[in-house]
From TrEMBL:
Its cofactor is Zn(2+). Binds 2 zinc ions per subunit. Zn(2+) 2 binds at residues 438, 441, 456, 459. It catalyses: ATP + H2O = ADP + phosphate + H(+); Couples ATP hydrolysis with the unwinding of duplex DNA by translocating in the 3'-5' direction. This is Replication restart protein PriA. It comes from Vitreoscilla stercoraria. Gene3D superfamilies: P-loop containing nucleotide triphosphate hydrolases, PriA, 3(prime) DNA-binding domain. Its EC number is 5.6.2.4. CDD domains: DEXHc_priA, SF2_C_priA. SUPFAM superfamilies: P-loop containing nucleoside triphosphate hydrolases.
Length: 722
C-alpha cells in the first residue's frame, strides 16, 4: 500500500491521507470517501511515514482514468492561490476545477480528434440544402469551405455526428486526425503604433514580460493581440485570452474564429454548459486546444504549452471573484505568465491605477495606441454643464432637454446615460416620507414599475407594491430618484414623436432581447437610447452623436477610494460612444461640481492626467497601490456579535509593526440576507507583513469558529470594494 496526501474540497487547512495499491502520480484526480461522502480530490504528494495508525487510512475508491494528472505547474498555481488568497488549498482546487470533474459521477473524455471536410466527390455529389433548413445548410457550407472538428460542427448542427457518419459511409469526406492549420487571414496592415506594439511583444516571446497596452476603444488593441497571437499559435504554443463577460460578444468570437480558423478554440463564460467546460478543460490540458478565450475562471485552465496571455479590459472589476476563492484573474494571470516564461499583455483604455503605476515604475512595459485605427473621427467634445443653480425636471435640465430635441430634429441619435448607483427609484409616501426597506438587508427596496413590484437588488426579495403606506396609511406613494424607466417616460413626453428605447437589465434580461435591440439600432430605428452601464461598452452605433450624462456626482460622494477611478473609466467609455463615424460627437455632462478634476480630465479626454493626479492622492493617503490591503470579514445574526469577535481577535494578536488595522466597522452593505456583517481592514506597505497579519487572523478565526457556529468569516486579499 502507498499513502497519498489528497486535496479535498472542504474548509480545512490541510491535506488528507488515503491509500492505494499503486503509486499515484501527483495531480491525479481520485474519488475518496470523506465523512461518508464520495468526494473528488487531487493527489498532492506521497507520504513515506504515517504519524497515526495505518489501519485507519481509507482507500482511494476510484481513479479518474480519463483525466491526465494535473501538471506540476497547475498545482503550483493552486498552491500560490491558496497561500496568497489565504484560502484552504482543497477548496481553492475545488473552485478552479470545472464542475464536471468534481462530479462523483466520473468523467469520460469525448473523442474529437478528427477534423472533417468534403472531398472532391462530396463537393460534387452533395447538393446544397434549401436555405430554409438553416442548420443543415450551415453544416453543408462549413464542410465545403472549412475543416472543422466534430465539436465545432456540433455547434453548427446538433445532429452533425449522424450526418457525418452517413457522408463518411458514402465516401464523401476528407477526414483528418490533425487540424488543418490555416490561421490568420488579415485585411489590415497594422498602423505604426500597432506595429511598434506588436514588435515589442513578439521580441519577448518565450520569456516573461508584462505589457500594458493603453489605447482608447477602437484604437486597434484587439488587432495587436491578434497579430501576436498568430505568431504564438504558429509556433505551436497555446494562447489564453481573458475578457469580462460583457465583452465576450458573438461579434468578437466570430472575429476570432475567422482569423484563427483551423485552430481549436475553447470558449468559457457563465453560460458554458458544465459538460462542455470539463471537456474543454481536459482538452486544453492535453494540448489539443490552441486558444482558450473566457472570463476570469478560465485563468485556471491547464495549458502545457502556454505561450501568451492577453487580458483585455484589464481594469474591469469582474476579474475579481467576490466569494469563495477571492482571486483576481489578472494577478493570477501575471503569476502564471511568469511561471510559464511567456509575455502577458494587459489592454485597456483606462488601466487600473495598479497597472498604471506598474507601468510608471517600469515593472510593466507601456505601449500606447494614441488614435482610432479605422477612422478620422476626432475625439468627442465634452461640455460640462453646471446645474447647481438650474431647476431639474426628472433630473434633467432645460439645456439638456433642448439639446436632445435639437439633435432629434436634425436626425441624430442620442444616448442618455445614467450612472446606476444612487439612481434606483425608491417608493416613498408623499404624506409622511416613509420609504420601504428590505427586511433582510440594509437596502431600500427598488420600485419596478412594469411588474408593479418592490425588489431588493441584493437578496432578490420581490413583493407587490403595497396599496398604502405602512406608517400613515396614506395611499399616495410616489417614486423618488430617477430610474431609467422614469427618464424614459419623461423623454417620451418631451419628444412625443421620437423613437425612444431603454436599455437596462430589466429591458434586456435575455440574450435575445439584447440581440433584437442591437439589430433595431443598427437598422436606424432608434432616436434616443436611455440606459446604464450596459450601454457604455463595445458597440458602435454610427448615427450616435450626442451623449448626455445625467448624474455622475453620486460616485464622488462615495466612501470607496476607488470611486473616482471607476467613475472616470465609465465616463470616458460612455463619452467615447459619441461620434464613432465621420461626425465628431458631443457629450453633455450635468454636474453640481463643475470644478471637479475628474471632469476636467474628461474634457481633455486625458487618462494619463487623471491617473497621475489620482495616484498622487493615493500616495498621500497611502492607499493601494502604495500599500496593500486585506479585509477580514465576519457575519453573524447580529452586528455586535460580528464586531465583538473581530474586536477580541484584534486585541489578542500581535500584528507586525508596519500593519495598520482599521475597524471593526459595519460593512457598507451592513445587512445582507438576514445576516449582519462587519470588517476590519488591514493595510501595510509590504505584502509579507500583510499576509502574516492575515494568517494570524485566519488562525484565530478558525480557532473561534467551532465554538460559535453562527459566525462565518472570509478574508479578502487585495479587496476591491473597500
Ligand atoms: P480596440 O480593441 O482597441 O477597441 P480594434 O482592434 O477592435 O480596437 O479596432 C477597432 C476597429 O478598427 C476595428 O473595426 C478594426 O477592424 C479596425 N482596425 C484595427 N486596426 C486597423 C488597421 N491597422 N487598419 C484598418 N483598420 C483597423
Ligand atoms: Zn434584501
Amino acid at each position: 500500500m502507498y499513502w497519498h496526501q489528497i486535496a479535498i474540497n472542504v474548509p480545512l487547512e490541510r491535506l488528507f491521507t488515503y491509500s492505494h495499491p499503486t503509486v499515484l502520480p501527483a495531480g491525479t484526480l481520485v474519488v475518496v470517501s470523506f465523512r461518508n461522502r464520495r468526494s473528488v480530490g487531487v493527489v498532492w504528494a506521497q507520504v513515506e511515514e504515517l504519524d497515526f495508525d495505518a489501519a485507519k487510512v481509507l482507500p482511494v475508491l476510484e481513479v479518474l482514468a480519463d483525466v491526465p494528472p494535473l501538471s506540476r505547474h497547475w498545482r503550483e498555481m493552486m498552491d500560490f492561490c491558496s497561500r496568497y488568497y489565504l484560502y484552504p488549498l482543497g477548496q481553492a482546487v475545488g473552485a478552479a476545477l470545472p464542475q464536471g470533474l468534481r462530479d462523483k459521477e466520473g468523467f469520460v473524455a469525448q473523442e474529437t480528434k478528427r477534423w472533417y471536410r468534403f472531398n472532391e466527390a462530396g463537393k460534387t455529389a452533395v447538393k446544397e440544402p434549401s436555405l430554409s433548413h438553416h442548420k443543415k445548410h450551415a453544416l453543408w457550407q462549413a464542410l465545403h469551405s472549412q475543416c472543422l472538428s466534430l465539436r465545432e460542427l456540433k455547434q453548427i448542427h446538433p445532429q452533425a455526428a449522424a450526418q457525418l457518419a452517413q457522408y463518411e459511409a458514402q465516401g464523401y469526406l476528407d477526414v483528418r486526425d490533425t487540424p488543418l492549420k490555416m490561421g490568420f487571414a488579415t485585411e489590415f496592415v497594422l498602423n505604426e503604433a500597432q506595429e511598434q506594439a506588436k514588435t515589442a511583444i513578439v521580441a519577448t516571446l518565450n520569456q516573461f514580460q508584462a505589457f500594458l497596452l493603453h489605447g482608447i476603444t477602437g484604437s486597434g488593441k484587439t488587432e495587436v493581440y491578434f497579430a501576436v497571437m498568430a505568431q504564438v499559435l504558429a509556433q505551436g504554443q497555446q494562447v489564453l485570452m481573458l475578457l469580462p463577460e460583457i465583452n465576450l460578444t458573438p461579434q468578437l468570437l466570430s472575429r476570432v474564429q475567422e482569423r484563427f480558423y483551423g485552430y481549436e478554440t475553447a470558449v468559457l463564460h457563465s453560460q458554458t454548459a458544465a459538460g462542455v467546460r470539463s471537456q474543454d478543460f481536459v482538452r486544453a490540458m492535453k494540448g489539443e486546444v490552441s486558444l482558450v478565450i473566457g472570463t476570469r475562471l478560465s485563468v485556471f485552465t491547464p495549458m502545457p504549452n502556454l505561450g501568451l496571455i492577453v487580458v483585455d479590459e484589464e481594469h474591469d472589476g469582474s476579474f475579481k471573484q467576490q466569494n469563495e476563492l477571492r482571486y483576481h484573474a489578472r494577478d493570477v494571470a501575471l503569476w502564471r505568465a511568469k511561471q510559464a516564461s511567456c509575455p502577458i499583455v494587459l489592454g485597456s483604455a483606462t488601466p487600473s491605477l495598479e497597472s498604471w503605476n506598474n507601468a510608471k515604475t517600469a515593472r510593466f512595459q507601456l505601449l500606447s495606441l494614441p488614435m482610432r485605427a479605422n477612422s478620422q473621427a476626432t475625439l468627442p467634445k465634452v461640455h460640462i454643464l453646471d446645474v447647481s443653480r438650474l431647476p431639474l425636471e426628472h433630473g434633467v435640465s432645460e439645456p439638456v432637454k433642448q439639446a436632445l430635441l435639437k439633435n432629434w430634429q436634425q436626425g441624430g441619435m442620442s444616448l442618455v446615460y445614467l450612472n446606476r448607483r444612487g439612481f434606483a427609484p425608491v417608493l416613498a409616501c408623499t404624506s409622511c416620507g416613509h420609504t420601504f426597506d428590505c427586511p433582510n438587508c440594509s437596502a431600500k427596496l427598488v420600485w419596478h414599475q412594469r411588474q408593479n413590484q418592490l425588489r431588493c437588488h441584493h437578496c432578490d426579495l420581490r413583493q407587490a407594491v403595497p396599496p398604502f403606506c405602512s406608517e400613515c396609511h396614506d395611499t399616495d406613494l410616489k417614486p423618488l430618484g430617477q430610474g431609467t424607466q422614469r427618464i424614459e417616460e419623461a423623454l417620451q413626453e418631451w419628444l412625443p414623436h421620437a423613437r425612444i428605447v431603454r436599455v437596462d437589465r430589466d429591458s434586456t434580461s435575455g440574450k435575445q432581447d439584447w440581440h433584437d435591440l442591437y439589430e433595431k439600432i443598427q437598422a436606424d430605428a432608434v432616436d434616443v437610447l436611455v440606459g446604464t452601464q450596459m450601454l457604455a461598452k463595445g458597440h458602435d452605433f454610427a448615427r450616435l452623436n450626442l451623449v448626455v450624462i445625467l448624474n455622475a456626482d453620486g460616485a464622488l460622494y462615495s466612501s470607496d477610494f476607488r470611486a473616482p477611478e471607476h467613475l472616470f473609466s465609465q465616463l470616458l467609455q460612455v463619452s467615447g460612444r459619441a461620434g464613432r463615424a465621420e461626425t465628431a460627437g458631443r457629450v453633455l455632462l450635468q454636474t453640481q461640481m463643475p470644478e471637479h478634476p475628474v471632469f476636467h480630465a474628461l474634457v481633455k479626454q486625458d487618462y494619463a492626467a487623471f491617473a497621475n493626479q489620482e495616484l498622487a492622492l493615493r500616495q498621500a493617503y497611502q492607499f493601494p497601490p502604495f500599500a496593500h490591503m486585506l479585509a477580514v470579514r465576519v457575519d453573524a445574526p447580529q452586528m455586535d456579535m460580528a464586531q465583538n469577535l473581530l474586536e477580541q481577535i484584534l486585541e489578542n494578536i500581535e500584528l507586525p509593526e508596519d500593519v495598520s488595522a482599521f475597524g471593526p466597522v459595519p460593512m457598507l452593505m451592513a445587512r445582507l440576507n438576514q445576516r449582519e456583517r462587519a470588517q476590519i481592514f488591514l493595510q501595510a506597505p509590504s505584502r509579507q507583513s500583510l499576509h502574516k497579519a492575515g494568517r494570524l487572523f485566519q488562525a484565530a478565526l478558525l480557532h473561534a469558529m467551532p465554538h460559535q457556529s453562527q459566525w462565518r468569516f472570509a478574508l479578502d486579499v487585495d479587496v476591491q470594494d473597500a
